[in-house]
Amino acid sequence: MTRTLEAAIAIARVWTRLYTSGLDQSLRDARRAEIESDLWESHEDARRRGGAATEVALQILARLLLGMPHDLLWSIESRRPCDHRPRRLALIAGAALVSLAVLWVASILREGPLPVPPHSMVFVASPPPPPPPTPPPPLPSSMADNGRDGRRPATDPRR
Amino acid sequence: MRRKPGALVPLEIAICRAALILRRRDEEFHGYEMARALGAEADARLLTAYGTLYRALGRLEKMGLLKSRWEDPRIPARESRPSRRLYSLTALGAEAVATARRAADSRARARKRLRRLVPA
Q: Per CB distance under 8 Å, which residues of A are interface residues toward B?
C-alpha cells in the first residue's frame, strides 16, 4: 500500500468518525463498519485487477468529497428523525454560504484590475525644484546719479 | 425540493434494478458491489460517492424495498477482512422496480406520440 493510498484511507476514516460521532451507537458502528468494508473492498478489487494505488486513492477521495453533503444530511436526519428543523437550517445555511460565495466572486470579477497605489507621493518623490536666484544687490545711492560714475547718462544724443 | 413520500429518485431506482438482477441469481450484495454495478450500468469510471450510496441504501431499507443483514462474523475472520453488510431486494422492492419500469415505458410512449404530433 502506497503512502497516497494510506493517506486517502485515513482521511476517509477520520471523516466517517467525524460525522458519525454523537450518533446512536448501533447506527454509528454500522456506518463505520460499512465504510471500512467498502474501503477494504475497493483496495482489494484494485489489487486483483492490477489497478494503480494512486488511482484507488483518487477514487476514494473523490467518492468521499462528493458524498460529504449526503453524509452531513444523513447525520442530521439520524440525530432527530422526526424533526425537520435541523435539515431546513442546514439547507438555509448552505444556500446562504453559496450565495455569499457567488456574490464575492461576482464582485471580484466586476472590479477588474486593482488600482495602482499612489506611490509617487510616498517613495518616488522627485527632487525639490532649485531655489530662485537671489536678487541683485541694490545700487548705492552715489552710483545711481547720472554722469557721476563715468557712464553716459541716459539722455537724448541730439542735445 | 421535497419529494413525495414513497417516490424514488433515479439512483434508488437504479439500485433496485441492479438488486433485482442479483435477486434472480439468488445473490445478496454489499455496498461496494452495488457501487460497481451502478458504475458498470452507467459506464462511469467514478463510483457512486459513499455518502450518496449509503444514504440511499438506508432510505430504501427504511422504505422496505431492501433488507440487510451482517454476515456471519466467522467468514470475515477467516478471510481476514472487515465484515460485510449484505443487502437484498424485498418483494416490495421488486414491485417498485416494475412500477418504475411501467412509468418509464409510459413516458417513452408519450414522448413518441408527441414527436409524431409535432414534427421536428
A: 12, 30-31, 33-38, 40-42, 44-45, 59, 62-74
For B67, the 3-state DSSP assignment is strand
Report residue A141 CA to chain centroid gap.
Answer: 78
Three cell numbers, residue A87: 435539515
Distance (Å) from the C-alpha of residue A117 to the closest C-alpha of chain B? 48
* Amino acid A107: pLDDT: 77
Express each pLDDT in A7-16 by its tens digit: 999 999 999 9
The arithmetic mean of pLDDT across residues A109-129, rounded, is 67
CB B16 within 8 A of CB B58: no
For residue A126, what is its C-alpha cell? Answer: 522627485
Distance CA B23, CA B86 (A): 12
Q: How confident is the model at residue A143 (pLDDT cuts 50, 70, 90)?
A: low
Chain A residues within 8 A of B35 when measuring between CB atoms: 38, 63
Taking CA atoms, what residue in A is nearest to B85? A34
Q: Which residues of A fall within a CB distance of 8 Å from B30?
A: 37-38, 41
pTM attached to this predicted model: 0.67
Distance CA B116, CA B110 (A): 10
Tell me the per-residue pLDDT of A28-59, one tens digit each, with 9 for 90 and over: 999 999 999 999 999 999 889 888 888 999 99
Q: How far is A34 from chain B (nearest CA, A)?
A: 7
ipTM: 0.84
Query: How far apart, in whole angstroms, are the C-alpha atoms of residue A30 and residue A24?
Result: 10
